[in-house]
Amino acid sequence: MELILEGLGEAWRLLTTGDGDIYGITLRTALITGTSTFVALLIGMPVGLGLALARFPGQRGLVALANAGTGTPPVVAGLLVAILLWRSGPLGDLGLIYTPGAIVIAQALIATPIIIAITAAAVMALPPTLHLQVRAMGANQRQYLWLIAREARLPLLVAVMAGFGAVVSEVGASMMVGGNLSGETRVLTTAAVLEVSRGNFGAALALGFILLFFIIAIAAVLTTVQQRARRR
Q1: In this structure, what CATH number is given to the domain that contains residue 152?
Q2: How many domains, the chain?
Q3: Distances, alpha carbon 126 to alpha carbons 123, 150, 157, 200, in Å
Q4: 2-6 long-range CB contacts below 8 Å, 24 or more apart?
Q5: How do residues 28-74 score in pLDDT, each as one tens digit?
Q6: What is the pLDDT of residues 155-191, one digit of tens each?
Q7: Which range marks the domain in which residue 88 is found?
Q8: Chain segment 131-161, per-residue pLDDT in tens
């Protein structure tokens, strides 16, 4: 209990004294996780819509693959990205290893299957008659997709929250491809792991509490948006 109180006190001190390193790590965490979630949404939602609405051989297999991808261990995603971006790897000439860009790629790889699976499930759960009604209204393909996505907007917001939650809390892939470099690729999760390895449990707890505050704030914003969408 004493250690937890020490961590809370340290978190409060770091936030109120304007510690530049903490604010820098927190801002970097927000930028990296926000970018990776956005990239995953750009890929995952269209693919999820396509899997749910299209009819083609192997559709069920791809849906099952997306569902299985929701349980992909972050270290496996990090290992795959590290192999691709390593200096001797296929994409090594890009020079992305141990950069924020590498973390974004790894985190997007983690979040994309989650968003695909939830999006596909949300659209598949819509009443079959809804599709007929939209078509009967004379909607073109773009309007049809927009109306279907609009009807599934509440579970789609869940997909956003799930994708963000997966990337903001992961640590293995970020350390593997980012290197946990001070001032460059260090984020809240990897900074907490570093402090534990140094035996600074109070500082590690402080970072953990700041991460929790950050996650709760983002979740509160997304929940507010979800509740407003529900009333429409």
Answers
A1: 1.10.3720.10
A2: 1
A3: 5, 11, 15, 51
A4: 3/201, 3/202, 3/205, 4/205, 6/201, 6/202, 6/205
A5: 999 999 999 999 999 999 998 888 888 878 778 888 888 888 888 88
A6: 788 888 889 988 988 888 999 999 888 888 999 899 8
A7: 2-231
A8: 667 666 766 677 777 777 777 777 788 888 8
Instruction: Quote the CA–CA distance of 179 and 27 in Å, as a whole number.
Output: 18
Distance CA 197, CA 183 (A): 19
Cα 121 to chain centroid distance, Å, stands at 18
Beta carbons of 191 and 26 less than 8 angstroms apart: no
- On whether the CB atoms of residues 176 and 107 are closer than 8 A, the answer is no
DSSP string for 139-191: --HHHHHHHHHHHTHHHHHHHHHHHHHHHHS--HHHHHHHTT-TTTT--HHHH
Write out the two tokens for 53.
């609405």
Task: Tell me if residue 89 falls in helix, strand or coil.
Answer: coil
